[in-house]
Amino acid sequence: MSATILVTGGAGFIGSHSVDQLLSEGHHVRVLDNFSSGKKRNLPEHPRLEIVTGDVRNRADVDRAMDGVERCLHLAAQVSVARSVSHPDESAQHNVMGTLQVLHAACRHGLSRVVYASSAAVYGTPENLPLSEGARLRPLSPYGLEKWINERYASLQHQLHGLSTLGFRYFNVYGPRQDPQSPYAGVIALFVDALRHNRSPTVFGDGGQTRDFVFVADVARMNARALFSEHQGVCNLATGKASSLLDLIAALNTLLESQQVPRFDAPRSEDIRHSLGATARLHKWFGLKEPRSLEDGLKALIEHDARWTAQGPQEGQMA
Ligand code: UD1
Question: Which of 65, 151, 177, 197 is deepest in the core (most CB within 10 A)?
Fold first, then answer.
């Protein structure tokens, strides 16, 4: 059955893939985006897609966007961990007050469900791996703390008003449309860009640090699935598999038929060594049994980039 779904931040990286997924499932989608980092070119021309330019911090904008909507995927955020450290007030305005506007509006408009972006950043330095949802939360940045506050607000709105919510703790999401030029670009976007331009990738530290890399199309599928489930609370969105940066460079060299050797630089302060998500809850609640392997995901990313270069953005979009 088709529904009308609001996607805040729908022109961004994860947002635009989620919009594609929801449209492919036959839903009507409304995007609310202020286009500060999201891009119109990330979105398709589609008869069931409506775009509202506005800001989640603005009550009138959120009211306008939520009118007639049944479910909401809330992804609009200030996504830079570094910026949250240098500008914590501005970051909290976006990430805490923006989310509060969305949750409160969802209650006023009688929405049946809100799925929102939390982050593995809520965990901070792990005590044990893999990180399960019950692990102690010790965020290392205002960004991580803001996401944790959002989880608490969502749970409180459930308790006070019966609003059904699910927060996904995204691990390291990668895939097409992640902009390597952005100051917040993830390591995969940066490494692919370096290798494609015959540059050495810069590794901060010894390259032995590991991450749980999740392909964005899997994230989009899980977002869509969660919107139509009843599960309440938080859930990791991870693959349960760890890859080191050196593994990553080796895989990319094979796929791109290059032989780049990394340039090693000082480790980032506050960098964590290992990150790996437990996936039992994700499997049980949302059935992501076989997430895309890193190799397959990298292949899809590289093929997408090649099409984009050859044909331009519209034809380059992923199905
Ligand atoms: C990621 C998320 C962040 C989230 C955090 C939670 C991204 C872009 N960031 O941060 O939003 O809060 O997980 O755990 O997904 N690196 C290099 N060379 C580079 C770039 C990065 O060696 O050119 C290293 C970093 O030092 C780090 C690893 O690669 O060790 C991953 O970095 P990055 O992609 O920025 O993600 P996280 O720091 O894990």
Answer: 65
